[in-house]
Structures are given as structure tokens and as C-alpha cells.
């Protein structure tokens, strides 16, 4: 039985991910700020780090936290648009979005099923 080696996210990898998530900058910029080598070699090393599963997992956690913190701001904006936008179209779309998220999404397609026999008779005269 082989032992599975667990990897920990290093301080440098954390700084890289935290910068990317917080600032939405390029990998090159985040790598430089996180302390990786300057130029192309730093970008390449940072890109390799970002492909590692444990780093990707950390990034997903950070993105989830960031989205969670900003969800209340987004919800308030949609509510404000639904009630106060000048455009009726914007009000309608915001209202539909609110209803959709509350579980009241309209049916995309309807399907009609008929039970029983259907007979078609064509009289050609």
C-alpha cells in the first residue's frame, strides 16, 4: 500500500492565490507581488504552482469566501434595480432574476402528453 503524500500550500503559493483572488490581476503581476522571480521565469513557476491540485483547492476556497462576502452587495444591487431602475426592462430583468433565485423559475419547455388512441381520417373525396 503506497502512502499518499499530502501537500501543504506554501506561504508563497498562498500569497500568489490571495493576490489573484483579491486583485484579479495577471499571473505575472501576482507572481511578482508574491515574491516569485521577476519576468517570464516567475510567471512560469507561478503558473505551474497554480496547476497543482492542493493550490487549486486553496484557490477555490478563497474564491468561495470572496464571492460569499460580496453576495450581499450583489443581492442589494439587484433589489435596488428591481424597484428603482429608470428602465422598465431593467426592472423586469432584475425581478425575474430575484424570482429565479427564489425558486420560481418559469418552465423552459412544456410537454403535453395525451393518453388514449388518436385516429386521423383523411377524406380525399
Describe the overall structure.
The protein is an all-alpha fold and 125 residues long. It contains five helices and no strands. α1 packs across α2 (27-34) and α4 (53-84) packs across α5 (88-101). The protein starts with 10 loop residues before the first helix and ends in a 24-residue tail after the last helix. The model has no long low-confidence stretch (mean pLDDT 88).
Report the principal-axis shape: elongated
Using only C-alpha atoms, the radius of gyration works out to 27 Å
Helix run count: 5
Q: How much helix is in the residues?
A: 55-70%
Topology as H/E string?
Answer: HHHHH
> Unreliable segments (pLDDT under 50, ≥5 consecutive)?
none
| Amount of beta strand | under 5%
Number of strands: 0
Q: Termini separation (Å)?
A: 83 Å
Oligomerization: single chain
Biggest sheet overview: none
Mean pLDDT: 88
- Which class do the helix and strand fractions yield? mainly alpha
Secondary structure elements and their pairing?
Layout: H1 11-23, H2 27-34, H3 40-50, H4 53-84, H5 88-101
Give short descriptive properties of this protein.
125 residues, single chain, mainly alpha, 5 helices
Describe the structure concisely.
With 125 residues, the protein is mainly α. 62% of the residues lie in helices and 0% in strands. The longest helix has 32 residues, at 53-84.
